[in-house]
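Let us practice reading a record.
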Amino acid sequence: MSLAFSIRATNRVAASCLTVLLFASFARAQRASGEFIFLLASGFLCEPGDTSTCPCTVRANAGDSYEMTGAGTFDTQSKSVKGAGTYTHKSPNGNVLETGVWIASELVSFDSYGPAPNALPRQGVRFGPATMGPKLPTLFGSMPTGGIAVLRVRFLPIQGASTTGVLQMNCALGDVPRERSVEGIRLTLERNNIEYSEELSGRVMFLALRPKISAPAKAPEQEAPETPRTPQN
């Protein structure tokens, strides 16, 4: 099996799983508060032919880099997260060293910079570029929000053993601190503690979902008292 075929097959499987994941997560998010959707170099964030938006690329001091895309949801109250995507590890000269899928396993922290209501495209929000399979529905009531999320993730390569890492996603919207003005990702691999801290490209966005407001319970109607009958002679 060629590497190119394996990469395409992995991307198709990841896209299908991601679609199912987001449908389920979105339905659940409508009933919760403090829940966000995150987009990592995917969906409407990507511009065709523009490598500065997708994928998210980060480089280590040694010169090798990771390219990542994905999406999912997390809950700041329960610290739960569901997310997945694809990744490619490249050497300093651009050769592919490893490729596969990544899965989010834990939300370590989320620091919000506040809402950015004008950040969504006017034509509406849709998940997934043309190569990522079926479109997910437009998300009404979602609010773009800047912030920095830290996730613990597991990397599952096409070949070789899995490994874990800490992924930092920074969305430079809202009231952004000066030291966090560069949008993108950072990554630390736990097997060797190598840090990838030079953000090269890619966009990140968080979408805050409004909790579903239940209609107030309707008070039971009271029956009118019966009119006493007049006795007949």
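A brief commentary: Helices lie at 3-29.
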